[in-house]
């Protein structure tokens, strides 16, 4: 049975890697950890964060990308309005947060909403207010620590590094899924995207 899957069936965007389509799973301020169910293409509530932390930006993934953790590439999109889950947002890439999660590399692209005049003047991660990056770092380190998981935010890097990481994830996607969603996954993984 063929069905629409946002990961495989939504385009990355014509201006990739500078402007990409981000598919939002979790709105800014949410304590709910929503994630795409890889098999059905629907959004599911994975869990509710049990601490005084909430997502510092809209959070999701870049379609038609693939990383070593068997998931699409994560993206954080800064926007002045709340973005609803499963919304496609044109995201201007400005940098990347490099994390190590349970001894696995876990890059998170940082972007601003391309069609939001209150943030789209930011061109590189160095343009952001320092507290924005601190908030992102603390969120991921704190919420994972409360779940007894070891996470280290290694560093923030600028847009050129982010472009390279996006290109690598596209190459890996094309190698892993040469027929798009028609190709079965190489290994039977759990049907959820880990954030």
Automatic annotation (TrEMBL):
GO terms for molecular function: inorganic diphosphate phosphatase activity; magnesium ion binding. Its main location: cytoplasm. Substrate binds at residues 33, 47, 59, 143. Its cofactor is Mg(2+). Pfam families: Pyrophosphatase. It catalyses: diphosphate + H2O = 2 phosphate + H(+). It is an enzyme of class 3 (hydrolase). Keywords: Cytoplasm, Hydrolase, Magnesium, Metal-binding. PANTHER family: INORGANIC PYROPHOSPHATASE. Homohexamer. This is Inorganic pyrophosphatase. It comes from Hymenobacter crusticola.
